[in-house]
């Protein structure tokens, strides 16, 4: 059996996803980082962006994460985010509308959020 | 119908209407406690993970950060007071206000100026009536606070802590809220949130005193701490708001339950009195009839002679 690591993706108000994975790719403030089982203990600041989780049964889980932290120790990886959504939960049409609206209102934060959501859906 | 009896009947009707209202409020509050408890439970994983991360950074690195270092002579402190928006919750608001008064008193005794930040209309009204200064206040969400609300509350507080004391910042941050222990027990508690005392973070994490590994920080320990501590404050405030909401509903349920019971007792007593009044009326009518008829009989007997 391939080595696995346990992943907990937690948002401020709920547990979004948890399970076993072989590889997790996330974007920190200093660049993309890939974590595989047995990685050195790590604590990093996440950028808004999609997170790719390669699950142990070969599937891929993509989630949009808006700011937060990645911490890895003891073969347990925690992704903490104020807001986190799985790609399946994101309504693409709604995100596109939100992007349009944010652009017209010049709301940079909302525009970034919508763009991250769309990237997560596209990466799925 | 006699005047007395009519008065009793009217009061029984009034109390019955009140009882229906308090009963409904009791049941609504009971339903909301469960919801609020579920929200508290749902916020726990995030809070726990964040606690772990904060402990890891603070113990694993010897960085000095304004949010973790204690000032040598703290001169100003901020208190965040969590009350309710609505009344009819028994002693809920007054208990937490009393706790805040005690804390304010203590801090003043230690020679610190106190800035008060208030959540909930009841607290704002209490301080407004006494014409005390409120640094900032938020109302309208104590029933079911969201994370966005917690962020809104946390922003000026974090700002105040980061600001230098000489420029109007604060050295300490305390929070006073009602802790939800169980359906029957809710305690007002006061916690010092910042500067962080590490023993406390570890204690809160529970009995599993694990030895934390040496972390690699990305991009650096300072930057991680910079990003982590505001989130930590927000999550603590979020947790406090959720617990306060659950406590508020529990307090309201209990207050409304005793109001309903009380109304039931009142109705029982009043209907006893009404029964007695009706009985007295009947007795009086009978004795009037008997008296009347015997007077007639006496008069007839007299005329027969």
From TrEMBL, chain A:
Residues 76-119 form a coiled coil. Keywords: ATP synthesis, Cell membrane, CF(1), Coiled coil, Hydrogen ion transport, Ion transport, Membrane, Transport. It is found in: Cell membrane. It is a peripheral membrane protein. One of its GO terms (cellular component) is plasma membrane. Its main location: membrane. One of its GO terms (molecular function) is ATP binding. It holds the Pfam family ATP-synt_DE_N. Residues 5-83 form the ATP synthase F1 complex delta/epsilon subunit N-terminal domain. Signal peptide: none annotated. F-type ATPases have 2 components, CF(1) - the catalytic core - and CF(0) - the membrane proton channel. CF(1) has five subunits: alpha(3), beta(3), gamma(1), delta(1), epsilon(1). CF(0) has three main subunits: a, b and c. Belongs to the ATPase epsilon chain family. Produces ATP from ADP in the presence of a proton gradient across the membrane. This is ATP synthase epsilon chain. It comes from Streptomyces candidus. The lineage of its organism: Bacteria, Bacillati, Actinomycetota, Actinomycetes, Kitasatosporales.
TrEMBL record, chain B:
It is a peripheral membrane protein. One of its GO terms (molecular function) is proton-transporting ATP synthase activity, rotational mechanism. GO terms for cellular component: plasma membrane; proton-transporting ATP synthase complex. The keyword Manganese does not apply. PANTHER family: ATP SYNTHASE GAMMA CHAIN (PTHR11693), ATP SYNTHASE SUBUNIT GAMMA, MITOCHONDRIAL (PTHR11693:SF22). SUPFAM superfamilies: ATP synthase (F1-ATPase), gamma subunit (SSF52943). Belongs to the ATPase gamma chain family. Produces ATP from ADP in the presence of a proton gradient across the membrane. The gamma chain is believed to be important in regulating ATPase activity and the flow of protons through the CF(0) complex. It is found in: Cell membrane; Membrane. InterPro entries: ATP_synth_F1_ATPase_gsu, ATP_synth_F1_gsu. Keywords: ATP synthesis, Cell membrane, CF(1), Hydrogen ion transport, Ion transport, Membrane, Transport. This is ATP synthase gamma chain. F-type ATPases have 2 components, CF(1) - the catalytic core - and CF(0) - the membrane proton channel. CF(1) has five subunits: alpha(3), beta(3), gamma(1), delta(1), epsilon(1). CF(0) has three main subunits: a, b and c. HAMAP family: ATP_synth_gamma_bact. GO terms for biological process: proton motive force-driven plasma membrane ATP synthesis.
């Amino acid at each position: 059996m391939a080595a696995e690591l346990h992943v907990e993706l937690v948002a401020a108000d709920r547990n979004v996803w948890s399970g076993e994975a072989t590889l997790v790719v996330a974007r920190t403030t200093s660049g993309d980082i890939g974590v595989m089982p047995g990685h050195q203990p790590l604590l990093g600041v996440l950028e808004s962006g999609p997170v790719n989780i390669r699950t142990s049964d070969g599937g891929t889980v993509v989630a949009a994460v808006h700011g937060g932290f990645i911490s890895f120790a003891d073969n347990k990886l925690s992704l903490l985010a104020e807001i986190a959504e799985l790609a399946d939960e994101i309504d693409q049409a709604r995100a596109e509308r939100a992007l349009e609206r944010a652009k017209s209102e010049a709301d940079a934060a909302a525009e970034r959020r919508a763009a991250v959501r769309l990237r997560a859906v596209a990466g799925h | 119908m006699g005047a007395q009896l009519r008065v009793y009947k009217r009061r029984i009707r009034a109390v019955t209407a009140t009882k229906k209202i308090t009963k409904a409020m009791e049941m609504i509050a009971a339903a909301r406690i469960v919801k609020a408890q579920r929200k508290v439970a749902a916020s726990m994983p995030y809070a726990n993970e964040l606690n772990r991360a904060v402990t890891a950074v603070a113990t694993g690195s010897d960085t000095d950060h304004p949010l973790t270092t204690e000032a040598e002579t703290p001169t100003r402190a901020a208190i965040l007071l969590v009350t309710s928006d609505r009344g009819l919750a028994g002693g809920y608001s007054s208990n937490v206000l009393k706790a805040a008064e005690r804390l304010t008193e203590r801090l003043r005794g230690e020679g610190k100026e106190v800035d008060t930040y208030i959540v909930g209309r009841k607290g704002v009204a209490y301080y407004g009536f006494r014409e005390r200064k409120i640094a900032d206040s938020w109302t309208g969400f104590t029933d079911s606070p969201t994370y966005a609300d917690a962020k809104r509350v946390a922003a000026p507080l974090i700002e105040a802590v980061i600001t230098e004391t000489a420029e109007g910042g604060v050295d300490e941050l305390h929070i006073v809220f009602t802790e939800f222990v169980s359906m029957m027990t809710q305690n007002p508690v006061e916690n010092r949130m910042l500067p962080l005392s590490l023993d406390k973070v570890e204690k809160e994490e529970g009995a599993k005193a694990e030895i934390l590994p040496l972390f690699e920080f990305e991009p650096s320990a300072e930057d991680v701490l910079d990003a982590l501590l505001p989130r930590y404050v927000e999550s603590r405030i979020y947790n406090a708001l959720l617990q306060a909401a659950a406590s508020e509903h529990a307090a309201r349920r209990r207050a409304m339950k005793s109001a309903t019971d009380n109304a039931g007792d009142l109705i029982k007593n009043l209907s006893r009195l009404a029964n007695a009044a009706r009985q007295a009326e009947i007795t009086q009518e009978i004795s009037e009839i008997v008296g009347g008829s015997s007077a007639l009989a006496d008069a007839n007997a007299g005329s027969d002679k």
